[in-house]
Amino acid sequence: MRDEELQTVLPAAEANDKAEVRPLRRRKAQIRESNEAHLLASAESVFAEKGFDGASTAMIAERAGLPKANLHYYFPTKLTLYRRVLEDLFEDWHKAANTFDASADPVAAIGGYVRTKMALSRRRPLGSKVWANEITHGATHMRDILVERVKPWMDTRIVVINGWITQGLLAPVDPQALLFMIWATTQHYADFEAQIKALAGPRKLSQQAFAETTEQVVDMIIRACGARTPPRD
Amino acid sequence: MRDEELQTVLPAAEANDKAEVRPLRRRKAQIRESNEAHLLASAESVFAEKGFDGASTAMIAERAGLPKANLHYYFPTKLTLYRRVLEDLFEDWHKAANTFDASADPVAAIGGYVRTKMALSRRRPLGSKVWANEITHGATHMRDILVERVKPWMDTRIVVINGWITQGLLAPVDPQALLFMIWATTQHYADFEAQIKALAGPRKLSQQAFAETTEQVVDMIIRACGARTPPRD
DNA sequence: GTCTATAGACGGATAGAC
DNA sequence: GTCTATCCGTCTATAGAC
After folding, report:
1. CATH superfamily, with its number, for domain A3-76
2. Helix or strand (DSSP H, E) at A61
3. What pLDDT is attached to residue B61?
4. Which tens digit of pLDDT belongs to each residue from A146-205?
C-alpha cells in the first residue's frame, strides 16, 4: 500500500499534532508501530514454541502477515527481535513484581503477589515460556536484565521478608528459597502447560478450575512460609 | 581401528561367554555400547544447552569424540537419538518417583520424595533441562510417556494423598496442585540454574548450601500441605 | 515502506572407499 | 565399524526493483 492511499484512508485526526510533524510522517510512524507490534507478538509465540534457534524468521514473518524481508527491515537481526521480546516480557514481570509490597501484612503481600503471578501465567503463557527457555539455555541473552534489574528487586524483598521473620510474622525461611518456590510454582502453570494438559486433562485449565487452583496455590504458599496476619494495635 | 587390532588389545576374558557368541562379535558389541553411551551423554548436554532444534548432530558427535557420520550409524536420525535421551531420563525420574511410597506417614513419604527429587536435580541437571525444554515446546515427542507412564503413576499417588487427607494427616489440598508444586520447586534448581547463579551467586550452589536449601524446601513443602506424623498406636 | 529473488552459510543425512 | 566427501534442503540476511 502506498503512502498516498493511506493519506486518503486516514483523513484528519492529526489536529493535535505539533506543527513540525507532517501528517505523512505520522502515518508512517503508525504503520511502523503496528507492524512492530504484530511482529513482536508473532515472535513471542514462535520463540515459545520453537526456542530461539528453532524459530525461523520466515515463520515469524508469516504469522505476522508480512514478507520475511519486512521483518528484517524493522528488526535488523533475529537477535534484535528476540531481545525486544525479552525486554518487553521483563516490563510485564516487573509490574507484577511490584505488587509484592512491603506492607506490614505478609499474608496480604505474599498472597497478592502469588495471585498476580498466577494471573500473569494465565494471561501470557507464551511469554513465560520464552523466558523459561532462555534461562534453561543459560540466560546468555538476558544476563544483564537478571543482574541489573531482577537482582536489585530481589534484594529489597529479601530485606522485607527478613523483617517479617524478625517480627515473628513468618517462619524462619530462607527468603531466596521462598521466592524461588513462588516463581517456580506459579510459572509452572504456564511453562508446563503441555504436561498439565496431558496429565490432568484440558478441563484443569478452564477459567473456573484455574481460579480454584490459584487459591490452592496461595493457601499452600502462605502455609509454607508460616505467614501470620499481624495483630491489630 | 580394525577388528584384528582390537582382538590383540583384548586377549582372553571371554571365558564365561556362551560358545556361540564369538569373541569378535562380543568386542564389537562393547564398542557399540561404549560409543552409544558417549553419544547419549553428549546429546544430553547439547540438547540441554541448545534445545532439540538448536542442537546440531555435528556438535553432538564432536563432543562425543566421533565423526558426524558415526552418529548416524548408531542413531539413524536426530530424532531417534533425542527419543533415547528422553526415555533414559524417564527411567531415572521413575526410580526417584517410587521413593514416594504409600506409607502411613506422609511426613516421611513426602519429605523423602522431595529430597530424592532435589538430589536428582543436583545429580543430573542437564537431563532435567532437556525434559523441561521438551514440555515447554509442547511435549510433542514424549506425549506417550506422559500419558502411559507418568499419568498412571500420578493417579495412584492422588489416591494415597487423598487417603492421608481423609485420615486428617494432611490439610485438604488439591493433590495435583501439591505434586505440581513439588515438581516445579525441585526441578527449578536444575532448570533455572543460570538464573540462580546470576541472582544468588555461584556459592548458593555449593555442596553445603544445596544441602541446606534442600532442607528448607522440605520444610516449606511439609508445612504447605500441613503434613502431620501419624499418632503411635 | 514493500516485496521478489538470491547470496552465502549451515543443517541433517548418505554414498562409498577403506 | 570408520570416515571423507557431498547432496540437498533450509536458514539468516540482503540487494535492488517497485
Report:
1. Homeodomain-like (1.10.10.60)
2. helix A57-63
3. 97
4. 999 999 999 999 999 999 999 999 999 999 999 999 999 999 999 999 999 999 988 888
Mean pLDDT of the residues in chain A: 90
Q: Which residue is nearest to nucleotide C18 (CA to C1')?
A: B2
CB of A121 closer than 8 Å to CB of A189: yes
Per-residue DSSP letter, A101: -
Buried (b) or exposed (e) across A210-228, using 16+ Cβ within 10 A? eeebbebbbbbbbbbbbbb
Q: pLDDT for A16-59, tens place per residue?
A: 444 455 677 778 888 899 999 999 999 999 999 999 999 999 99
Integer Cα distance of B231 and B233 in angstroms: 6
Stretch B8-27: mean pLDDT, rounded?
50
In B, minimum Cα distance to A54 occurs at B53
Strand C contact at CB of residue A68, distance < 7 A: yes
Residue B88 C-alpha, separation from nearest chain A C-alpha, in angstroms? 18
- Would you list the domain boundaries of chain A? 3-76, 85-224
CATH class of B86-224: mainly alpha
The residue behind cell 509490574 is: A95
> May I ask the CATH class of domain A85-224?
mainly alpha
Q: Indicate the pTM of the whole model.
A: 0.91
